[in-house]
Structure formats: structure tokens, C-alpha cells
Amino acid sequence: MLAKGAADEFIAALSAGEIAAVLDDWSMQARADQWPPEGAADGAPWFIWLVLGGRGAGKTRTGAQWVRGLALGEPGFANRPVGRIALVGETAADVRDVMIEGVSGILAAHGRDERPLWEPSRRRLEWPNGAIAQVFSAEDPESLRGPQFECAWLDEFAKWKRAQEVFDMLQFGLRLGERPRQLITTTPRPSALLARLMEDRRTALTRASTYANAAHLAPAFIETIVGRYAGTRLGRQELEGEIVEEGGDALWTRAMIEAARAPKAPPLRRIVVAVDPPASSSGRADKCGLVAAGLDHDGYLYVLEDASLPSARPAKWARAAAACARRHEADCIVAEVNQGGEMVAAVIAEADAGLVVKQVRATRGKYLRAAPVAQLYEQGRVRHVGAFPALEDEMCAFGPDGLPGRRSPDRLDALVWAITALALARRAPEPHVRRV
After folding, report:
1. What is the pTM of this model?
2. Which residues, 6+ apart, have CB-to-CB distance to 406 below 8 Å?
3. What domains sit in the chain, N to C, each tagged with a CATH number?
4. pLDDT tens per residue, range 236-278
5. 3-state secondary structure 230-248
6. Which helix (H) or strand (E) holds 253?
7. Beta-bridge partner residues of 289
8. Which of 423, 404, 370, 395 minimizes the C-alpha distance to 255?
9. HSE (CB half, 13 Å, CA atoms) of 378?
């Protein structure tokens, strides 16, 4: 890669025609996630290329250039022109307006002398070399019964109401050529079918966030939309291209948490930092849960920061806890001592001898301790100042059996201790208080 100065000189030396050629060369513009992958997860040739991306991440351009490369038989896409291609969108209008005629669509991806003939009445594109792409709507699975193809592009797959039926019908039609395959481009949503495709050994998965394509988006979009939704469930899905799920029996729902967003906290009469120390400092140990929260004069609670950190030696997490307490001018640190006993207070004292430590000991299971805190969320008494994706993922996955995979809910434990100390402590015996 050329250094910036050398790149500027190189560009300045190009003629207008050479610059136009560069701009028309997709191989020089495409990001790594927009170029066809070499193989699936197991190294074998992929059958499905699954592109998960945020809004404006360049998914449509990726699909359009892929179809162009197939139809023209360009290196990196196909060894020869692919003769029969299926284009499937949520509706026929979506295929026309976005996939074909859109600003990043198939027609825009071609140079003037190579552009296919678009016949809307026949719902098909035909290239000068005879390659044909047919249009199908995901509203009509039966329309895919009969036609056959070498390749297919499926756009905004996660939005399809009858995704399983359409996908099944398409698979029976992918029976031409040496290597039938399909590209799926979508902003993800929780979907059992999408989850299965992601786990399939013949799927090649690439991801792209909105930020990756920021150079091609309006600055105002980045400043306002990204700034407003970054970190929220909607932002993680629509901007980061993440699948944001929740457990069916979880104590918290995404809707509860989104309803609890607050831009800032009012004056607070009490602030605590809760720490759930790891049992050891080994690489396999649990994380250190570390959450700051406060209580206002009207009895509302505000989660201020999730400062949790990976498993670490006691001195490191104690310094992190002390720093968090200083940042928020906390009244005390609430520390679970089931694992470390007196050691917990001692290491915090080494980090900052002026801090007050409330030692709490768990006498009930995690679910029973968390349930009253979840009830406060249901009552609308808790607010999140900003977004805490990792903490919120634990909250929305935590059910009667804990977290999936028997993971420890370290961030959630710290949250529960903080809220309990601020709002629920009077319902239980007062914890032992020690000044260190």
C-alpha cells in the first residue's frame, strides 16, 4: 500500500481516462468484506456467501458487483459467464427499485457499453453475452417452482415474512452449472433460519458495519443517526449488523431496556460502585463485574457505567474499582466477598485507603437476587445513562438456568449488587460496613 504522500503523487499523475478506469474497477474499490471469499469456514468451496451488514454498509453494491462479475465471467467471480441468475427481494418492487435500478444497483455497477437490457415487463435482465437474471418476489414462493439457476442473489433476507418457504424453493432451482451458489445480503434480525445458515459449514460469512462505509455516506447521517443510536439494540442491529437476541424466559427484555434509556443523570443523592471479583486471575477465570449506579432524590436509579474487565489479578481489578469510584464520586464500593473474603477489602484498601467498602455475601441464588431488580425495571424506576451492550446482552439472556453455556453473569451480578444497595437493601439485613 502506498503512503499518503506517494498515493497523492500517483493519483495526480493519472489522466482523466485513467482515473475513470480506476473508479470503474471494483477490485480497486472493494473492501475485503465486499469481495467474494475464497472458501467457507472449513476451507471448502462455499455454497452460501452470507453478508451481514448495517444500514448503508455497502451490501447492495456488493450484491450488484457480484452479479455483474458472474454475468461477465470476470476473474474472482466466475471462470466463465454465468448464464442463469435469480434475483430475489422482499417484493418485486424492492428488486426493481433497489437491486436493479437503485443508485448502488446492478445497472449502476456496469459501464455504459456492458450494461444489460432491463425488461421490467418480463422481470428480467439480459446481457449482450446472453446471460439472464430473473426477478422474484419473496412474497410468492411458488414462483420459484420450475425455473433453474446457476446462482442467486437474495437481498434483505431477514425481512422476508416467508423466508423458509422461499429459501427452500430456491434451493431446488439451484441445479445448473459446475458450482451453484448464492449470495445473501441483509441487515440481520433474530431468525432461526439465519442462525442455521450462519452455522452451516458451507457458508462463508462476512460482516460490515455502517462505519466501514462512512466515506460514502452523508456526514450529517453519521453525526446524527449514528450518534443517537450507537450501542442501543436498534443501533447494534441496524448499524453494526449484529444479531441481538434475548432469551425467551429472561428476566429482562430488550424493550424494557430501550424504554429505560436516559441521555444523562440528574443530581444524585447516592452513588455506589459494585464489584463482583473473579475467583482467580487465570485466563479461564470469570470477568470482574464492575458497575456504577446512582439514586436520585425522587427514588429513580441510574446505571452510570459498566467498567467490567477481563479476569485480572486482584491489584488490577481493585485499581479499576477505585478509579471508577473516583470518577463518579461514589459514596462507597459494594463488594461481594463470597470468593475473596477479607482479601477483597484489603486489596481495595491498597488501591485507595480512603474508600468505604460495603462487604456483601450472597446467601441466595443469582436468579432470586436478580428478580427484584428486574421488577424495578418493569416499574420504570431504573434508567441507563447511555448504552452498555455487553451488560445488556447478559441481562436479556439471563433466565432461571443462568446464561447459555453456563457462563458466569459477572456484569449482571455487579449491577444487581449496585441496585440492591441503593434501593432494596432495607428489605434484607444490612450488609457489614468496613472503612478501609
Report:
1. 0.61
2. none
3. 31-229 (3.40.50.300), 254-435 (3.30.420.280)
4. 777 877 766 666 678 898 888 888 999 999 999 999 999 998 8
5. CCCHHHHHHCCCCCCCCCC
6. none
7. 276
8. 395
9. 10
